């Protein structure tokens, strides 16, 4: 019998509902189905929902409600909810793999036993799903990287990685939205505007979107948009 779904209190104002411990579309579909069901329910005292790869964090106001009634309700909903795949968009993102935009490309090639062109081909062949947001505004975590180029994170993070960097670790990929430190491998750079705080819809991606990358050359970087 599966140990999931599993519920546990986080501090004095949140409950974490876990549907699994791996990155998988069917698990994330259940997370998003519960998220939608709870938003539609408009529960008194519940203030926020934070979906992740395999879990949903439900935050509540402890002055208005407590964990006991929420745990009972969430347990029932989590066991009853069915995976529901929402309508998704297919988005293509430009990426340049040329120097100086891909400082870790040679390392990824050496560790995976491929040539740099082989790494690029594997990345371009990957079909990504947007699973969650985190770390910085607009920072979409995508899963679906080709197993050929899945590497563990670097032992020592690097500082000042530019916004627009295409970084990978494990089966995941991110396009950074701010200059930031990272322990992931930098294999390219995208000129696409992933996060635009002045826009009515500041995030380019929605959770559940399917993303693929399209190769561009350095000469195209200034003229290529998202």
What does this structure look like?
The structure is a single chain. A hairpin with a 3-residue loop joins strand 1 and strand 2. The protein has 2 domains: 75 residues, Gyrase A, domain 2 (2-Layer Sandwich); 134 residues, Beta Barrel (Cyclophilin), CATH 2.40.100. The mean pLDDT is 93. It has 4 helices and 13 strands. The strands form 3 sheets. Strands 5-13-6-7-10-9-12 form a 7-stranded mixed sheet, covered by helices on one side. The radius of gyration is 19 Å and the shape is elongated. Helix 3 packs across helix 4. With 226 residues, it is an alpha+beta fold. The termini are far apart.
Features:
single chain; alpha+beta; Gyrase A, domain 2; Cyclophilin; 7-stranded mixed β-sheet; 4-stranded antiparallel β-sheet; 4 helices
TL;DR?
The protein is α+β, with helices and mostly antiparallel strands and 226 residues long. It contains four helices and 13 strands.
């Amino acid at each position: 019998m599966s140990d999931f779904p599993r519920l546990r209190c986080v501090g004095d104002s949140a409950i974490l509902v876990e549907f699994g411990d791996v990155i998988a579309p069917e698990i994330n579909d259940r997370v998003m189905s519960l998220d939608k069901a709870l938003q539609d329910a408009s529960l008194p005292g519940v203030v926020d929902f934070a979906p992740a790869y395999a879990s949903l964090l439900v935050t509540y106001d402890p002055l208005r409600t407590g964990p006991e009634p929420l745990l009972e309700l969430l347990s029932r909903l989590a066991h009853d909810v069915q995976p529901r795949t929402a309508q998704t968009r297919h988005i293509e993102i430009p990426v340049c793999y040329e120097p100086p935009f891909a400082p870790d490309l040679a390392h990824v090639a050496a560790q995976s036993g491929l040539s740099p062109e082989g790494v690029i081909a594997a990345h371009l062949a990957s079909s990504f799903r947007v699973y969650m947001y985190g770390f910085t505004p607009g920072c979409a975590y995508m899963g679906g990287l080709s197993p050929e180029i899945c590497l563990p994170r670097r032992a020592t993070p690097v500082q000042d990685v530019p916004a627009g960097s295409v970084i990978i670790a494990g089966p995941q990929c991110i396009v950074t939205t701010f200059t930031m430190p990272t322990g992931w491998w930098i294999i390219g750079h995208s000129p696409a505007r992933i996060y635009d705080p002045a826009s009515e819809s500041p995030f380019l991606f929605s959770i559940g979107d399917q993303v693929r990358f399209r190769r561009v050359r350095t000469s195209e970087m200034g003229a290529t948009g998202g």
